Amino acid sequence: MRPVPSELPCPWHAFSVADVAARLSTDLRDGLPVAEVARRRAHYGSNRLVEARPPGFLHTLALQFADFMVGVLMAAAVLSLLLGELVDFITIIAIVMVNALLGAVQTHRAERSLAALRDLAAPAARVIRAGQLVPVGADELVPGDVVLLEPGDRVPADLRLVETWALEADESPLTGESIPVEKRAAPVLAPPTALGDRRNLLFSSTTVVRGTCRALVVATGMDTELGKVAAMLRPGPRDATPLEGRLSELGRVLVLICLTVCALVVVMGLGRGEAFAPMLLTGVSLAVAAIPEGLPAVVTIALATGVQRMADRRVIIRRLPAVETLGCTTVICTDKTGTLTENRMTLRELHPGGPAELAAGLLCCNARLTAGGRDARGDPTEAALVLAAAASGITREAVEAAYPRAAEIPFEPERRRMTTLHSRRGRGVLDRLLGRDVRHFLVTKGAPDAVLPLCAARQDGDRRVPMDPAARAECLRRAEDLAGRGLRVLAIAYRPLYRTPGGRPEPELERDLCLLALAAIADPPRAEVPEALRVCRRAGVRVLMLTGDHPATARSIAEELGLLERQEAVVTGAELEAMDDRRLARTIRTATVFARVSPADKLRLVRAVRRQGHIVAMTGDGINDAPALKEADIGVAMGQTGTDVAREASAMVLLDDDFTGIVQAILEGRAIYDNIRKFLRYLLACNAGEILVMLGASLLHQPLPLLPVQILWVNLVTDGLPAIALGLGRPDPGVADRPPRPPGESIFARRLGVKIAGRGMLIGLGSLAAFLYGRHAFPADLTLARTMCFATLVLAQLLHAFDCRSEHRSLVETGLLANLPLLAAVSCSALMLLAVIYLPALQPVFRTMPLGLGEWAAVLAAAASSQVLVGIRRLLRHQGWLR
Length: 883
What we know:
Layout: H1 17-23, H2 34-44, H3 57-63, H4 68-82, H5 86-110, H6 113-119, E1 124-129, E2 132-137, E3 146-149, E4 158-170, H7 172-175, E5 181-182, E6 201-202, E7 207-219, H8 225-232, H9 242-271, H10 276-290, H11 295-312, E8 315-317, H12 321-327, E9 331-334, E10 346-351, H13 355-363, E11 368-369, E12 376-377, H14 380-391, H15 396-402, E13 405-409, E14 417-423, H16 431-434, E15 440-446, H17 448-451, E16 455-460, E17 463-466, H18 469-484, E18 488-497, E19 513-522, H19 529-538, E20 542-546, H20 551-561, E21 571-572, H21 573-577, H22 581-590, E22 593-595, H23 599-611, E23 616-620, H24 626-631, E24 634-638, H25 644-648, E25 652-654, H26 660-699, H27 708-718, H28 720-726, H29 752-777, H30 782-803, H31 811-814, H32 820-838, H33 843-846, H34 853-878
Parallel strand pairs: 9-20, 9-23, 16-19, 20-22, 21-22, 23-24, 24-25
Antiparallel strand pairs: 1-2, 1-3, 3-7, 4-5, 4-6, 4-7, 8-25, 10-19, 11-12, 13-14, 14-15, 15-18, 16-17, 18-19
Helix pairs in contact: 3-5, 4-5, 9-10, 9-26, 10-27, 11-26, 12-26, 13-14, 26-28, 26-29, 26-30, 28-32, 29-30, 29-34, 30-32, 30-34
């Protein structure tokens, strides 16, 4: 009995067919015996992808509580419970649980990439075993099986071709190659040949679009190229997003503040002779006040609002932090096929162009329009001709009615051309070329260097002009120029026949042809992409093209889009493999286009860019893009042309495959981060004001200016509504004209910490002044002084909310109506303040009393003082008197 190969050789493309058969111990004619198949299946396992077992939902849920900010909120909940504030305790716990559940659900869904990959496996295959052709499930294939394939078949495993007949395969999902690849069994290739150039192999999950073949299974399951992609998608630790990192940093700062405040208040109170229990209660109240309990809720609302705005633009966000991550993106690594281009072969040039030339090309095609007439089925190159003819009003039905096909000499890789024979039965667009006496003619379509040598003339208007060597050389030069621009070039020629051809048409008929036209076909760039790239440059976002396509095609598209200058080099996958990490890092800083790259190359490039400190967005649609999509800070998949693999590995999906959606998401992400800074500026300045009131009163040996219940009311009610409204604000003008923020930038950068501290001090001092005025004017009525302090604190905070609408423009510049939700929130909070002060049922709960006109005058003056001082400072800066 023949032994099972213990270790499969690699690379298979470097071995001849005979060597491969010998190494796999298989018979090329009869295949494997049934018993041998069973042995090998026991050795190699099923031909399917192995899915790593994901962590259970409860484990995923438990991981959500490891976040530092969640720990801070849990501590705040415990402190609230110690204060006897049950409602506050329940609210905080509810916020933590909802956020944990949302995070767990999103994480649990994120590992479905392998399931999508497994679903791509071909359901069945036709195999020769023991000399018999039998259908089997694709998962039953083993190395050494002999497989037969025909057009439309999905390749069930990695195969070494044995025999081919005009074979072409669509490998775009795996390699990014937009044009079907010609496959042959004969060549033995060098070991370092790139994946897209291994013409003697077929790869699992690709599709046969033309011809037939007999092939040997050389790799199954996780050993296939698809399996290698699956291995790259194995679950691993997820890096924190920039937003999560900044909120974690904020949590640490708040904990430090809480501990410091508690200690100061308790120590100073004990130093004044106060009882320990009341001072501890007050310190704990301030500690709770320092923590913005509503922060996770406001962040979630801000992100969800941005997600909804993106959904209105046909952009689906699968993970909430993805939008904010895009907002600080510094590099976009984009695939070409289906992302920058339409992923549909299109007639780009026809020279000379006209109805007759299109009609002749249509006659020599086997592709057909679909039922809706918007697409075509068949060879993508022929489909381009069919769609171009249809767009010009030339239908196959009308042309074939006038010139029905009598016979065909099919396309073969060795001949690189196809010829169809037609009879003439009616009037049509070719009549001006054929003249009156011609009853039969043939049309030939193929590679220029295969058709032009057969041409004795060329069509010049209505005349046939002899083709001399100079004219033929000029046509070849033009074809080479088009091919150098990444276009697939076809020569279309015809030959009138003045007598009926007898018998079966032979290739000998393909002589004395007359050249009609050169057709240039390519996958065109999307019309909206150049403007999107210009916006990216204006926004300081660098775009890199990573494609498996041919370097000439990649260069042509990049130059047409304005992504690449003519003198810039295109880096190939072979060149990348020869680079060490240091040289790769240098290359990335200057190169823009990377062609003929494998999935492993894309993954390496994304990792290299991230190591340079960039926040990377990766766009793509194919299986070959999935590992890099998962590795990037944010993966962006195409919704229409994208595979399930790409979508499941991504955080964001463009439903219309519109590259401009990425630009809109970048701007939306910047707006969301701006909004988060806005409400942090508001919340923390307000909390700082509350703390300073208490600390100031303690330093002046005054009674507590605010009671714990008043502090909690301000923190949970008055602060909450304006903060949420700030999180819903529209982007500031010019958001696209500034560079992305540095990835390591602190959330308090650009003087935000100074603004928070400064405004918090003004709010605190104004509120303390109102309290001291009340103590001086009404020394016997502590409740009135506390009410004045309480009212001043609330109003000063509400006025501050209008300043927080923009970091770059003043209240006058933004206008009062710039954020209507904020205006409504401030109005509601002001009414709630009046209710607490004037409703008899609430006065005993919050220890307040009604204020008269004199007291309100003092409150309004104290509350507005911070606004006036900030306005004066801005005026002085505008006049150049302050920096």
